[in-house]
């Protein structure tokens, strides 16, 4: 054993020396062999044995969890996992201990520690240096910091403390050899009763060795890890990896305890399927392409509809082109669904032919018969239709007359095309399928190897690879965020906010949790509501009846039952009653729900002006509603017995009834959503209100629902089947304006905001770099008033920037730049309500923000870290460069015309583009100005914020490795490709 | 069946009778002859943080923040205005001379939790958050109902920081704002980067051309191309010149004052350009440490904020008067809530929503300096309380919009205001 002799010299610590050293012998970490150099730094998390009095415990707390990192540096600890692998709440404060046996060279070294709150570094049991407990804020903390903190400057190139961490430097001397290093830090803490988030800031022990000015992370490894910004970026990714691996393993262990139950559930589901009649797959009509059973259903329907759409004279009235839009705009609002006025439904051929209370609406070929023509042309104000708004024009009544005269043709579906389009080519396929599964287009390597692959099953192989890709989770996140109205606010959540249960969603997707199990976790709402557990779904701040709101989300997402109206009254067009929503809400709340006045409609108001109210209120305010399964038509309430783990828990019962295999509605609603995601429209539309629409392919819908259950409720299994069908793989017909309900071709489909932003970053290779999505960087606020949503690296990770206070010092300009693009493209940062579909209609702001916006400036500028800078510097003919840029950005080779133009453009100065010996300025070494809640009202904060806004708008400097005139030409080419409509439409 | 007849007859009546007056079921009382206003534009100031009415537009006896215990009341002396009997704080001296064009609505109230974000949302949308939908801001509603005065410019612009409360909600992105955060940078998305001049822009478009022309004319991709053409037009000189404050005479620029004043000047230029609704945020400088959220020490320099507002507001009113645009331009001062007459422990003021002042100016209203009376503590309304829906209804009515008109959220009808009734006195 060769223990170093330590003689520490630290002015700041002299005063406390006696006190601290008296206790150090008790703080020895267990189980480190001091004779062996460690192979990693062990990170232990201690939750017990701590108090909230800002005092170090007398007895070293024992750890409950531990994992390894390469050095004395972490900026995160794993979430706490509880139950069956959901995120829970750690006690605040907790303590984190980093320890290792390190080999030190002889000499007098300097040691730096950084930590958010109290920390202490001991070597061989002797205290070397420590930081104090973070102060109390007082009040709401907005004026807590009265002086601006200036971080330590470690010298040119070395890292500044990013989040106002405490930091101290101490000198110490050693004769060299193995030493036992321990760095203990507090995570979280309390101000009175208010807990702070159990996080660590940048928690580091760095060393500048004797005689050197170089700072590096202290590590037991031979490897040197400089404590510079760039090396830290790489290092923290390693830490993130360790944390992710550790977390996945924790989840797996916890879930393992429940696997047997779920295996039984899935066995029971298969048994049930085996005992009900199979959904027959129709025979394939002659001459249709087929890749799997889906194509049988699609082709059979197409052949049937084609036979109904007998083409008469070319100038005949076409029902779908001419008549349906008229009915929809003027009649269907009232004449639809089960509560159609006068018993007449004009939303469905069969019912329309039958007519309503006053008799048939029309008789084919007889313009004198039927109510429709009579009523729209009536001069009696009490009879004329429509009763509200303008009367039909002469042209419109003539149109209806001609249509009836010609036979009132009303086929089941419109025949958009005469035949199926052929398959999309390989280039289009790989772009499409990657955008649809992982949310980004192929790299040029992926693109080239797929195109040159001669294997006949290469599409299936690619689909298989993508289904297993972890980015699948990123691409599905927005769907669940929208459907479940995930709506965290990073500041005082008062806008119908939920917890950030995005993290639970993400874990579930990465772990491929079967959907029945995921829904069960959602409904049970366990875990930490502020830490990302499903409990966060159950929160709705400032909402009069949160669980009624949640009930409506559950019913529309999983059962296709729209109960939004039922929040205040019975459904005006459907069969559902307000009471049903409250029963469902009461199940979610596990208690009786009161109906407040604010969740009702005053009957006096309803009848104002002598109107017959369009809506009915059958549940009077003040009513108390007991928990009860409100949808016996979908699943018998008795089914819960035997499925639910605990029949005394209303949530368990609800979860069981939602996900029971007998509840075919659930499986079909999910299948329909998955289908719509890939095919552009649902078999039933709207996705979340099945009373309003009928399935175009009812048998296919049933078949898909069964497949979903048969495959253990795996969305991926369903996706694999759909992606492998010929129907999915058809080429685009550019003139289709909406998806063809017969799927004869694909339509040009606008990508989602997330797909567009992620694709632009991925294909240009520009790093996705923003501020942390947090306004409480130093963790000084109550957990209920601030969350840290991390530093996004995919678009879905953004959220509302929560600057309702309108304060420049609370702006996040880099996030704002990305948020501006996404908002213009239909994304909502604040999801106060749930949604199945987004507004993607074009407007001028969309192309404008892509052409001129700040994010586009970053993506267009050839900075040193831009992916296309490296590409441009390669030794290659200009044709090759043009080809490469097109493949990267658009997944295709340029056409002859494009090639000619782009080569001519980039050839100018091409030979001189590379600066052989560029003058490269070192990155500016300026201490970042911390802007966070506790200092945002300081006078210097607004100017500091303005500097940050200016810097964001300016973007990174261009590379000096490329000659500037040629560089700007190349940037112009990149700009043009980024602004191409192909960039935002799916091939 | 009888009620059905009634409804139809009623509707027919309403259709024929409602050509100019705002007849609707909620206030069909014939004694309330509320006329539809003739204002064409709205400039909506936003004083984030909560303007202290007792220190601005609803002064009371002088208080004393420093005595122990502190004495509630105004922090500053009040002065007479051009409207007899109506007084304002001494720091609104310039506005006081124009008070006959102004009405401080002193009895606005909402009794929701006085948290900034929640109240900001309420005052912008006129409704509390429901969880079933997202309500549009008043700017989006006005944009949706009336469009831009000149169709070649956007209907709704924001000089301030984007947030959901200012957004279009269920009306969709088309009714959203175009924003700029200050008067030095142009509107986000329409301002070309500094290193892209006209020549470079032309080069870029030449490269883009073949990529845009790959699609049939009647396709959705062609629709996007049309949107690109429109975006290009808006980023061109015709629209962008409106943001060139340098085109204004120096004397005018000086009269408007600092950055907030310059924003007001820009708002006037945007009104002239045909923009319908402009929200102008007063979120500058935090010269008093807290902005309008004058807790504790924020009180000490509050007068600087008020003076800045006074300069800009009076300059705008005078300028619009001179240009004969005041009658068609409604100016509104919005803030999320007010503040109590009593002082907090640090000599500043907390939040108060039971009664506070929002201000209207111009817009062709019958101004009376002040409307509504609060008690001596500025805490409760004594006469003529005005709800947020009423206040919104007044703005809509001034702009010729029926506050009861139903917007459609999908198929759900949503009246523009939640039963709001315009202030008859201002519109009669």
Secondary-structure element series of chain B: HEEEHEHHEEHHHHHEHEEEEEEHEEH
**Alpha plus pi helix count of chain A:** 29
Q: Point out poorly predicted stretches of chain B.
A: 1-31
Beta strand count of chain A: 20
Rounded radius of gyration of chain B (Å): 23 Å
Which two chains form the greatest contact, residue counts included? A-B, 98 and 96 residues
Tell me the fraction of residues in β-strands of chain A, as a range. 5-15%
The N- and C-terminal alpha carbons of chain B lie at a distance of: 37 Å
> What is the CATH C level class of the largest domain in chain B, in words?
Alpha Beta
Oligomer: heterodimer
What is the percentage of strand-forming residues of chain B? 5-15%
CATH superfamily of the largest domain in chain B: Alkaline Phosphatase, subunit A
Task: Please provide a written account of the structure.
The complex is a heterodimer of chains A (987) and B (428). Chain A has 987 residues and is α+β, with helices and mostly antiparallel strands. Among the domains of chain A are: 7-133 and 155-250, Sandwich (Jelly Rolls); 310-405, no CATH class; 753-986, no CATH class. In chain A, the strands form 6 sheets. In chain A, strands 1, 4, 8, 11, 15 and 16 form a 6-stranded antiparallel beta sheet that branches. In chain A, strands 3-2-7-12-9-10 form a 6-stranded antiparallel beta sheet. In chain A, strand 5 (81-82) and strand 6 form a beta hairpin. The longest helix of chain A has 46 residues, at 229-274. Chain A is globular and about 110 Å long. Chain B has 428 residues and is of the alpha/beta class. Chain B folds into 2 domains: 36-191 and 237-427, 3-Layer(aba) Sandwich (Alkaline Phosphatase, subunit A); 194-234, no CATH class. In chain B, 31% of the residues lie in helices and 15% in strands. Chain B has 12 helices and 15 strands. Chain B has helices at 2-17, 93-96, 116-125, 138-146, 198-212, 220-234, 237-240, 250-256, 259-273, 302-322, 388-398, 424-427; strands at 41-46, 78-80, 87-89, 102-109, 156-159, 178-180, 277-281, 329-334, 356-362, 369-371, 373-374, 381-383, 386-387, 406-409, 412-415. In chain B, strands 1, 4, 5, 6, 7, 8, 9, 10 and 13 form a 9-stranded mixed beta sheet that branches. A two-stranded antiparallel ribbon of chain B has the order 2-3. Chain B has a two-stranded antiparallel ribbon with strand order 11-12. In chain B, helix 8 packs across helix 9 (259-273) and helix 9 (259-273) packs parallel to helix 10. Chain B is globular. Chain B starts with a helix and ends with a helix. Chains A and B meet through helix 14, helix 22, helix 23, helix 27 and helix 28 of A and helix 1, helix 3, helix 5 and helix 6 of B.
């Amino acid at each position: 054993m060769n223990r170093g002799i330590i003689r520490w010299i630290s002015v700041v610590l002299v005063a406390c020396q006696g006190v601290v050293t008296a206790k150090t012998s008790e703080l020895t970490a267990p189980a480190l062999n001091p004779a062996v150099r460690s192979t990693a730094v062990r990170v232990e998390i201690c939750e017990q044995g701590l108090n909230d009095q800002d005092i170090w415990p007398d007895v070293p707390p024992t750890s409950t969890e531990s994992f390894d990192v390469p050095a004395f540096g972490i900026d995160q600890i794993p979430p706490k996992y509880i139950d069956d692998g959901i995120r829970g709440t750690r006690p605040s404060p907790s303590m984190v201990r980093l320890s290792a046996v390190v080999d030190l060279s002889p000499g007098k070294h300097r040691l730096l520690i950084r930590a958010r709150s109290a920390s202490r570094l001991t070597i061989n049991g002797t205290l070397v240096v420590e930081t104090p407990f973070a102060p109390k804020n007082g009040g709401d903390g907005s004026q807590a910091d009265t002086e601006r903190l200036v971080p330590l400057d470690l010298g040119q190139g070395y890292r500044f403390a990013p989040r106002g961490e405490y930091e101290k430097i101490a000198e110490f001397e050693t004769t060299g050899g193995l030493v036992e290093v321990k760095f203990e830090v507090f995570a979280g803490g309390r101000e009175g009763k208010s807990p702070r988030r159990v996080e660590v800031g940048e928690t580091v022990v760095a060393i500048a060795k004797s005689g050197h000015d170089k700072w590096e992370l202290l590590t037991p490894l031979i490897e040197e890890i400089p404590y510079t910004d760039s090396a830290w970026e790489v290092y923290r990714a390693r830490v993130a990896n360790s944390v992710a691996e550790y977390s996945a393993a924790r989840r797996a262990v916890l879930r393992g305890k429940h696997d047997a139950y779920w295996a039984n559930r899935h066995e029971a589901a298969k048994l049930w399927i085996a005992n009900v009649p199979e959904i027959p797959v129709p025979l394939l009509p002659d001459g249709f392409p087929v890749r799997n059973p889906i194509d049988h259903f699609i082709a059979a329907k197409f052949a049937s509809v084609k036979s109904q759409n007998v083409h008469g004279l070319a100038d005949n009235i076409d029902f779908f082109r001419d008549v349906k839009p008229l009915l929809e705009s003027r009649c269907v609002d009232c004449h639809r669904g089960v509560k159609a006025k006068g018993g007449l439904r004009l939303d469905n051929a069969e019912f329309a032919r039958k007519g309503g209370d006053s008799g048939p609406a029309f008789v084919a070929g007889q313009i004198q018969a039927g109510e429709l023509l009579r009523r729209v042309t009536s001069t009696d104000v009490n009879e004329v239709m429509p009763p509200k708004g303008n009367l039909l024009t002469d042209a419109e009544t003539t149109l209806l007359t001609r249509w009836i005269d010609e036979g009132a043709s009303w086929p089941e579906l419109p025949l958009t095309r005469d035949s199926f389009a052929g398959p999309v080519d390989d280039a289009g396929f790989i772009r499409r399928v990657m955008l649809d599964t992982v949310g980004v287009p192929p790299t040029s390597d992926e693109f080239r190897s797929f195109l040159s692959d001669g294997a006949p099953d290469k599409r299936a192989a690619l689909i298989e690879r993508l289904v297993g890709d972890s980015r699948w989770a990123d691409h599905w996140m927005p769907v669940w965020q929208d459907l479940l109205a995930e709506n965290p606010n990073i500041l005082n959540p008062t806008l119908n906010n939920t917890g950030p249960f995005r993290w639970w969603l993400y874990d579930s997707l990465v772990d491929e949790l079967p959907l029945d199990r995921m829904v069960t976790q959602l409904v049970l709402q366990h875990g930490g509501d502020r830490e990302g557990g499903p409990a966060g779904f159950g929160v709705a701040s400032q909402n009069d009846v949160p669980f009624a709101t949640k009930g409506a989300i559950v019913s529309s997402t999983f059962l296709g039952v729209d109960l939004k109206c039922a929040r205040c009254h019975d459904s005006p067009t459907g069969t559902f009653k307000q009471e049903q929503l409250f029963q469902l809400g009461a199940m979610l709340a596990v208690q009786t729900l009161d109906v407040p006045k604010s969740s009702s409609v005053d009957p006096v108001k309803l009848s104002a002006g002598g109107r017959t109210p369009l809506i009915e209120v059958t549940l009077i305010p003040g009513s108390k509603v007991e928990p009860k399964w409100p949808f016996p038509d979908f699943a018998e309430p008795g089914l819960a017995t035997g499925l639910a783990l605990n029949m005394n828990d209303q949530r368990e019962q609800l979860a069981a009834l939602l996900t029971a295999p007998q509840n075919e509605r659930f499986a079909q609603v999910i299948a329909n959503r998955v289908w719509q995601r890939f095919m552009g429209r649902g078999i039933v539309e709207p996705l979340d209100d099945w009373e309003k629409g009928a399935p175009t392919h009812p048998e296919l819908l049933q078949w898909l629902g069964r497949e979903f259950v048969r495959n253990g409720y795996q969305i991926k299994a369903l996706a694999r089947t759909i992606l492998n069908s010929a129907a999915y793989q058809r080429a685009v017909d550019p003139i289709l304006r909406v998806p063809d309900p017969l799927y004869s071709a694909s339509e040009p489909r606008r990508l989602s905001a997330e797909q567009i932003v992620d694709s632009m970053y991925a294909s240009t290779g520009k790093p996705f770099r923003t501020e942390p999505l947090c306004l409480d960087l130093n963790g000084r606020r109550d957990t209920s008033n601030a969350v840290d949503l991390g530093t996004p690296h995919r678009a879905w990770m953004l959220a509302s920037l929560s600057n309702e206070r309108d304060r420049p010092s609370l702006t996040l300009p880099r996030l704002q730049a990305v948020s501006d693009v996404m908002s213009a493209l239909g994304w909502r940062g604040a999801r106060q309500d749930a949604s199945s579909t987004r507004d993607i209609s074009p407007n001028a702001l969309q192309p404008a923000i892509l052409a001129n916006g700040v994010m586009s400036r970053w993506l267009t500028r050839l900075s040193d870290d831009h992916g296309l800078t490296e590409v441009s510097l390669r030794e290659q003919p200009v044709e090759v460069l043009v080809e490469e840029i097109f493949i990267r950005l658009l997944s295709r080779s340029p056409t002859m015309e494009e090639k000619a133009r782009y080569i001519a453009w980039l050839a100018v100065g091409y030979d001189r583009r590379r600066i052989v010996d560029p003058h490269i300025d070192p990155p500016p070494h300026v201490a970042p100005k911390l802007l966070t809640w506790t200092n945002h009202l300081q006078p210097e904060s607004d100017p500091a914020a303005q500097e940050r806004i200016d810097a964001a708008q300016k973007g990174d400097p261009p590379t000096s490795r490329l000659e500037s005139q040629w560089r700007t030409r190349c940037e112009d080419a990149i700009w043009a490709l980024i602004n191409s409509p192909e960039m935002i439409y799916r091939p | 069946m009888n009620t059905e007849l009634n409804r139809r007859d009623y509707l027919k009546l309403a259709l024929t009778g409602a050509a100019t007056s705002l007849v609707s079921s909620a206030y069909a009382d014939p004694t309330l002859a509320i006329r539809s206003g003739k204002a064409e534009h709205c400039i909506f100031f936003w004083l984030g943080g909560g303007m202290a009415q007792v220190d601005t537009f609803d002064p009371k006896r002088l208080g004393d923040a420093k005595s122990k215990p502190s004495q509630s009341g105004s922090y500053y002396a009040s002065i007479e205005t051009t409207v007899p009997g109506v007084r304002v704080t001494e720091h609104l001296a310039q506005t006081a001379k124009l008070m006959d064009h102004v009405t401080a609505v002193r009895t606005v109230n909402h009794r929701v939790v006085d948290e900034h974000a929640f109240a900001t949302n309420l005052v912008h949308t006129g409704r509390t958050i429901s969880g079933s939908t997202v309500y549009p801001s008043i700017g989006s509603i006005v944009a949706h109902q009336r469009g831009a005065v000149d169709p070649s410019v956007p209907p709704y612009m924001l000089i301030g920081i984007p947030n959901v409360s200012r957004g279009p909600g269920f009306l969709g992105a088309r009714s959203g704002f175009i924003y700029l955060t200050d008067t030095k940078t142009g509107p986000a998305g329409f301002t070309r980067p500094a290193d892209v001049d006209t020549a470079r822009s032309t080069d870029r478009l030449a490269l883009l051309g073949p990529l845009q022309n790959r699609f049939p004319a009647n396709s959705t991709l062609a629709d996007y191309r049309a949107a690109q053409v429109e975006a290009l037009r808006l980023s061109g000189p015709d629209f962008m010149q409106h943001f060139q404050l340098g085109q204004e005479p120096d004397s005018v620029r000086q009269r408007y004052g600092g950055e907030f004043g310059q924003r007001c000047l820009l708002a006037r230029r945007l009104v002239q350009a045909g923009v319908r609704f402009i929200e102008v945020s007063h979120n500058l400088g935090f010269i008093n440490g807290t902005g309008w959220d004058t807790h504790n020490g924020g009180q000490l320099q509050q007068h600087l904020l008020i003076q800045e507002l006074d300069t800009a507001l009076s300059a705008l009113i005078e300028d619009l008067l001179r240009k004969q645009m005041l009658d068609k331009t409604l100016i509104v001062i919005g803030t999320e809530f007010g503040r109590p007459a009593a002082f907090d422990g640090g000599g500043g003021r907390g939040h108060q929503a039971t009664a506070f002042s929002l201000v209207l100016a111009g817009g062709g209203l019958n101004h009376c300096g002040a409307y509504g009376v609060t008690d001596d503590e500025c805490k409760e309304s004594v006469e003529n309380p005005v709800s947020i829906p009423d206040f919104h209804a007044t703005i809509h009515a001034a702009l010729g919009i029926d506050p009861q008109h139903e917007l459609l959220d999908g198929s759900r009808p949503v009246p523009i205001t939640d039963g709001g009734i315009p202030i008859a006195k201002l519109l009669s």
